[in-house]
Each structure stands twice: as structure tokens, then as C-alpha cells.
Amino acid sequence: MASSAVRALMKNSTLKRGATFITSITEARPYSQHGVREFSCGYALWNASGRSSTFESEDLLRNLSKVVPPATRRLSGEPEKAFTDDEDSEVLDYPGAKTTFTHELKFIPENAAEPVPCYRLLNDFGQPLPWAQLPQMDAELARKIYSHMVSLQTMDLIFYEAQRQGRFSFYMTTHGEEAINIATAAALSPEDVLFTQYREPGILMWRGFSLESFANQCFGNRDDLGKGRQMPVHYGSRELNYFTISSPIATQLPQAVGAAYGLKMDNADACAVAYFGDGASSEGDFHGAMNFAAILETPVVFICRNNGWAISTPTNDQFRSDGIVVKGRGYGIRSIRVDGMDALALYSVVKEARRMAIEESRPVLIEALTYRVGHHSTSDDSSKYRNKAEIDHWKLVRDPVLRFRKWIEAHGWWDVDSEKKIRSEARAAVIAAMNKAGRKEKPHLSALFEDVYDSVPSHLKEQDSQLREVIARHPEDYPTDVPTQ
Ligand SMILES: Cc1ncc(C[n+]2csc(CCOP(=O)(O)OP(=O)(O)O)c2C)c(N)n1
Ligand SMILES: [Mg+2]
Known about the structure:
With 485 residues, this protein is an alpha/beta fold. It has 15 helices and 13 strands. It has a 5-stranded parallel beta sheet, sandwiched between helices.
């Protein structure tokens, strides 16, 4: 930087010709109050061999006032002005970073002065904000989004109760996150490949996975696509481009990047979409995925549901950054923060993120702020770490389903009768699907050993027969509805 100033200084002072840059002309400060001649400027001078030399000559100060007027004015008590040497912006060519020099010893603060704002279009009462540019959405699409949110809510309520009654072993609800599930799904295309965590069954529902298929999976019956080998809610569907959920948190993220890279190689008109929670962003896989996504320029949209909790761990015990959105910049990824309880805002953001991901072949990070209204899972009791008033506030005042309903009602696209009808139909459909799935028998015992290899290898055949022997010896410990013959 400032090499024309340095050249001028060198010409007029005793500085050696090897001096290459000066970083502190505007930072020169008095070390006594007795006058301009006692300013120190020299500490900022480095010679070509990298050694610094102090320099306090009157000569320098005299010349300084000739060649660097802003600095001199500052030294003599006039208001500070930016140093505007044209080579301030000289691009440096270190292999690790292309940048300019600065004379300021200044660390980047850990957080920006203001948190990243959150994009929203509807207020808590479902009214568009005055400046909001609403996305193109006709009555049919709006009703479809709303009715899917209701179906998801209803499925969650009934399946949750069924689990409590012991009909299946485990369940997780999406309460509070219905808009993230459905509105984001609506903004994607069926060709986009999805890698989800576990709190996003609504996306699968949007793509046409039937209530009975959900129930088959939760019961682990013979029609479960996973043949009962996964815990409930670990859905998957090859037909619907929805990769099977796996329990270890964040493993889906690098997988999504790999899939996106494949789509890029194929020149496909599709992207990969990875959904995950704030807790998943605390895993190493998140960071690896982000970095690879950036350097490989993969068409992947990361959608983080920041619901404030990773089971009982609040976000401020997980990270000290301004949420997840700022991490995008750390990896060179474009990012945005959106209100995860505003279906319209989510729809707009995901549509645009998808467009950028595919057309510009780049990753995009979306942080959707939301709240997990239910317990983490049926194995959790969130009243142990959150107070009821907090939960009630989000459940009653901030409900994303109700917010969207108010918006469609204001358009005349929905009314009390349609609400009654859809709620009772959804309830009947979920109960029917669940009862049907509950009556089906379990997958055959041998299914435990199949589908990894083309044909079952000898060591697995051996395990299969050992298992049968154990079951024959202790029949009381094994379910009777699993066919073994
Ligand atoms: C690698 C790994 N560590 C820990 C767990 C246990 N675990 C299951 S869910 C969860 C919390 C995840 O929180 P978040 O990603 O915020 O999702 P949310 O449940 O809030 O939707 C944890 C720690 C796990 N499944 N995998
Ligand atoms: Mg969370």
C-alpha cells in the first residue's frame, strides 16, 4: 500500500531504498503532548528484508506533511480523513488470499454489530408487510400448501398418540415447523433430490407419499419400504427422490453435496436439497459439506431449521455465532435468513435459492428461524428444560399454519366450512391409514439379512439360522407376528 507515499518519503528522507511499505501513516500517534516533532512514524516502516526500523527524524515528519496531507492534518489536530492513496487497493498476490493491505491493526470482530435480519412477508397475523413483494401464488397452490400443512399436523397428532398408546415404538412431530416442511417442498421440483434429517416428513407428503406408506414405515410392517429395519420416522423413497433418513446427525449433508456434484456432472435441471437442524450444524459433517459444496460449486441448497434446540441443548450452548446464516460466508457460500414460520417467505426464498443453485451452479445456505413446539421425540420430556409459557407462546401465538390460514382467508380462498371439512377428512384419512397399516403382518424374518448383497453370503446365512435357533429356544422374547417360515 501507499507506495507512492513511500517513494516520496524515500526520496526526501534518509530512508533506505529497500523500504517497501508503510502501514501506519494515518495511525501515527503522539507519545507526548509537546508538539508535532515528537510523533513517531517509524514503527510502520519495513525494509525489503522484512525488518522494521524506527524512524523519528524531523526530516520524515517534514516530508510526511508534504506527501501525505491527510495524515499530517490529523497529526496537527484536524479531523481524520481516510487515507486515499491509489495503491491502498493494490491487490496482493499471496497464494492464500488476494487482498489489499491495511495500516490498521484491527481484528475482525467475532460478530457483526447487527444480527443478520430475517426475511419475512407476512406478520404474525398473516397480513402482508407493507413493502412485501409477494410471490406468484394462485388460489389452487395456496390451498394445496395449506391443506398439506393440516394433513401433516393431523398425522403428527394421531401418530404421536398412537405411539403413546404403545402401537409403535417411537415418533417425532413437526409441530411449529409445518411451514418449513410444506412451503419449501412446494418451491422445489420433483427431480430435486432430498436429503433430510427426521423432522421433514411433510416434504415426502408433498411429493405424494401416502398416509398409509407413512404408517407402514412406523409400524415396520411387510409393506414398509425399509422392511422394518429402521426406527419409525426414518422414511425413504427412491421413487420420490427422497434418500432414506439415517439417525446419525448431519451425515446427510456431505451425501447431498456428492449427489449435487453428480447432478452437475450430468448437467441435470435439478439440485440436491439438504435439510438439517441447528444441532446438526454443530457436527463436523456440516463443515465438511459446506466447504466441499463451495469449492466444487455444487448445485445444493442447504436448509437449516434453526428451532433453538438440539434436544435439551439450546443454541447458545452450541455456538456463539449469529446463528447459522453467517457460517455461509465463512465458506464462501451465499446465504439468507428467513422466518421459518412464514410459508410465503419460505416459498420465495427456496424458489430463488433453487434457481441460483442450478443456473449458477453454486451452493446456497438458508437459515429458517423457527421453534420446535413439541418434545424432541417421544423419548423426551421438554418440560424439564423449557417452561410451559414459552412453549404456549409459540404454539398459540406464532403458529405457522394459522398464520398462513389467515392469509388465504383474507383472499377469500378459505373459510370456516372449508376448515371443518379438511380437518375432519384429514383425521379420518390418518386413522384409516393407521388402522390398515397396523393390521398388516411384519416383514419376513429373512428380510433382516437381505438387500445388502445380491445374494445372501454364507456368514449371513449362518447368522440367520442362529437367530432361528434362539427364537425357537426363547419364543416368549420374540414377536409372534414376524413370519419365520
Ligand atoms: C452424530 C449424532 N450425535 C448425537 C445424536 C443424538 N441426537 C439425536 S437428535 C439430536 C439433536 C439434533 O438437533 P437439531 O439438529 O437441532 O434438530 P432438531 O431435533 O432440533 O430438529 C441429537 C443430539 C445423533 N443422532 N447423532
Ligand atoms: Mg434444533
